[in-house]
UniProtKB/TrEMBL annotation:
Residues 332-346 have a biased composition (Low complexity). Residues 1-217 form the Transposase IS701-like DDE domain. This is DDE superfamily endonuclease. Keywords: Endonuclease, Hydrolase, Nuclease. Pfam families: DDE_5. One of its GO terms (molecular function) is endonuclease activity. Residues 330-358 are annotated as: Disordered. InterPro entries: IS701-like_DDE_dom (IPR038721), RNaseH-like_sf (IPR012337).
Length: 358
């Protein structure tokens, strides 16, 4: 097996096209919801392994050497944590995660379009990101694609309101480019919401979503905008504050702050966004399934190219039982349970096939 991984060959582009053309899970209105996140293949003992970067293990705060992978998966609905893996890209050392992620999404959207996944769909693809990504920057870099960006934001962020109208100033002076501050930690700066919804749920009690429209970050020529030519853009979006009555883990519920790349959100858009973000945690269950059940990070490989080949194999192995779920559910039944040769209840049923949902 190690010889095959070290010297073998996999047509990665063909695999990606095949994955994009398969039946994919969709949200309630038939649109695609994709989650993007990074999962590390930790290699602390691979001192001779090249191109290692740093990542964190489970419940770890220290940085551990390894190969981080940016993984994209399509999210589904219902009481299941299965996702459809679509792409995995290894992040090189000292890489710009935002640039690589945007290129990865751009190529994936092109493959989905070529496969006919966008035909007859009047709604853009919703991309869900965690707080490790700069959602406004991703939205700006992908503004020419049929995608919506929904990302979680830190609780210490400060945004700005829409640019105030120009007023003649007899004393001269430069017109204001940014409006008043919107401080996440200061309710006195929020003013009235433009949309509020209340939804009763089984796991979280009542979910309250508040939305403030046309907010943007104040950009400077630093970090991702260091090499930006010309004046910096104003990237408007909608901020969504999500609060719940209780958590399934009985922990203290804290508010979530999300940023949607579109404006003028309706109540239906508000509910669609927060439901899609809660589904983002399905990709965490997928990472656990890949590592604990499919042995994604078990081989002691030296070369990163061999790790890429093994990652492709694991994605293909994960796809097969996902596609077999309808067959397994159709064959499962009280009369078949325990019979020799009877069908396994399948990944949709509680058991070892599927990580338990919170």
């Amino acid at each position: 097996m190690y010889d095959a991984l070290n010297a073998g060959r996999i047509d990665v582009e063909s695999l990606r096209r095949q994955l994009a053309g398969l039946p994919l899970p969709r949200a309630g209105e038939g649109h695609l919801v994709l989650a993007v996140d990074v999962s590390p293949w930790l290699r602390p003992d691979g001192n001779c392994s090249p191109q290692r970067s740093f990542g964190r293990g489970k419940d770890e705060h220290r940085m551990i050497p390894g190969w981080p992978y940016s993984i994209v998966a399509a999210l589904g609905t219902g009481r299941t944590s299965w996702t459809a893996l679509l792409d995995a890209v290894r992040l090189p050392s000292a890489a710009d995660v935002t640039t690589i992620t945007c290129a990865q999404i751009r190529q994936l959207v092109g493959r989905l379009t070529d496969a006919g996944q966008m035909e007859g769909r009047d709604r853009d693809i919703l991309i869900v990101l965690d707080a490790g990504y700069e959602a406004p920057c991703v939205a700006w870099l992908l503004r020419d694609l049929p995608v919506e960006i929904l990302g979680r934001m830190r609780s210490d962020r400060v945004l700005r309101r829409a640019t105030p109208p120009r007023i003649y100033n007899p004393d001269g002076g430069r017109p204001a480019k940014n409006g008043g501050e919107f401080v996440f930690g200061d309710p006195g700066t929020w003013n009235a919401e433009h949309a509020v919804t209340h939804t009763d749920t089984r796991l979280y009690g009542q979910v309250r979503a508040q939305a403030w429209d046309r907010l943007h970050p104040r950009l400077t020529h630093r970090a991702a905008w260091t090499d930006h030519d010309g004046s910096l853009p104003i990237i408007e979006g909608t901020v969504i504050r999500l609060t719940v009555d209780h958590l399934p883990s009985r922990g203290e519920p804290k508010p979530l702050r999300l940023r949607w790349s579109k404006i003028d959100a309706t109540d239906a858009d508000l509910n669609r966004c927060w439901r899609a973000f809660l589904r983002r945690f399905d990709i965490e269950h997928t990472f656990r399934l890949l590592k604990q059940t499919l042995d994604w990070t078990a081989p002691r490989l030296r070369e990163p190219a061999a790790a890429d080949r093994w990652t492709c194999r694991v994605i293909a192995a994960h796809t097969q039982p996902r596609l077999a779920r309808p067959l397994a559910q159709a064959c499962a039944g009280p009369g078949n349970a325990g019979r020799p040769g009877a069908a396994h209840p399948g990944p949709g049923a509680p058991g070892v096939w599927e990580p338990a949902r919170a």
